[in-house]
Amino acid sequence: MFVKRPVNQVVLADDTVDFLCEAHGDPAPTIRWRREEGELPRGRSDIRNDHSLRLTQVRAEDEGTYTCVSENSMGKAEASGSLQVHGKTRHNTHEYGHTRIWA
């Protein structure tokens, strides 16, 4: 049974994001993470002591669905959250009296 589940998140590039996951059961379940679109980001993902998944310096290519898998001898349960990454904050610059927006 999930006590905390991952939720869908929208963040800016270079942000840090946490997907929460906590499950209880008897016997106590093991928890692991997977990404539907491939591997977890190498060198920028960490499964913490509370079983949450932390992604640092997120990039556009990290977008996708992250799934927490809880498993014990009684069965398996999964809960997922999606990640969307938006580009950097827009910067304004003036050129010849006109405003240009840089993405």
UniProtKB/TrEMBL annotation:
Record protein name field = Roundabout homolog 3-like
Keywords, A to Z?
Disulfide bond, Immunoglobulin domain, Repeat, Signal
Q: Per the UniProt entry, what species is this protein from, by scientific name?
A: Salmo salar (Atlantic salmon)
- Annotated region (Disordered) at 72-103
Which superkingdom? Answer: Eukaryota
Give all residue intervals belonging to the Ig-like domain: 1-84
Which InterPro entries does the record cross-reference, listed alphabetically?
Ig-like_dom, Ig-like_dom_sf, Ig-like_fold, Ig_I-set, Ig_sub, Ig_sub2, Neural/epithelial_adhesion
Q: Which SUPFAM superfamilies match?
A: Immunoglobulin
**Which ranges are annotated Basic and acidic residues under compositional bias?**
92-103
